Amino acid sequence: MSKPCKVALIQFESKLLDIDHNLEHALDLARQASESGANLICLPETFVTGYNLDVFGNDIGSLAQESGEKVLTALKEFAKEHHVYMMASVAYWHTKPDKCEEKKPNISAFFIDDTGSLMGIYDKNHLFGDEKLYFSKGTSYPVFDTPFGRIGIMLCYDANFPEPARILALQGAQIILCPAAWRVQDIRLFDMIMPQRAAENVCYVCAVNRFGDDAGRYNPGHSMVCTPNGKLQAFLGEAEGIVYADIDSDITDALRQEIPYLDDLRYDEYLPYLKGCFPPKL
What we know:
This protein is α/β, with parallel strands linked by helices and 282 residues long. The protein has a single domain, classed as Nitrilase/N-carbamoyl-D-aminoacid amidohydrolase, CATH 3.60.110.10. It has 8 helices and 14 strands. Helix 5 (162-170) links the parallel strand 7 (149-153) and strand 8. The longest helix is centred in the first third of the chain and has 23 residues, at 60-82. It is globular, with a radius of gyration of 18 Å. The protein starts with a strand and ends in an 8-residue tail after the last helix.
């Protein structure tokens, strides 16, 4: 049996490229979340730099170098001091050069336990638009064992595809965290996709989106926690704030017994149809 968990999704307005300010502001809000009883604190995609590749794409390598280890150290110290688990996404030099087509950083998510130890790093596997010019793709889908259950991570555009969440669920993930920098033009999809990923994999999906204007690229928030049957448990619209939700992985396990989607998958049937189908014909 897993312990219940109080998750806090921190949706805040950052200042583009002001790393020190954004880190301090995020940790101030994380402190508030900890004092409110949160066990697991989640921050949005690229929370310390902001997100506008039209502005700083060409400098992303140096920004990742400048901020990556600094942020990781600060988060580990915070997690240890406040006895909380933390998940946060930054541009980071992580993928080994021999696995990179070019030497480029990743969009990464740190997962840190309540002793301040780095449990692992997830690197974004699906790169959106111009991200392909500046970042390396990830190469794995790690799942982390915690007292609250098994936790997986997907990053923003990963959620547009059914496969990442399904891969995590098939590895036993009962909770999926999804930091995002989802722009306002596509927020309708964000609102649709996150509950669907929860329902089709019978797991919690906790999606924390950026809020505010990044030099003309507007992110409207809409951070949410979705239950394993796809219901909206907690939601925050266009505002800075913290989304709290009490989650229990035992509910995931019970619903997976009742709704055995993952057990009823027919891989033997799917694979012959998939073979030779890619890339799809347009």
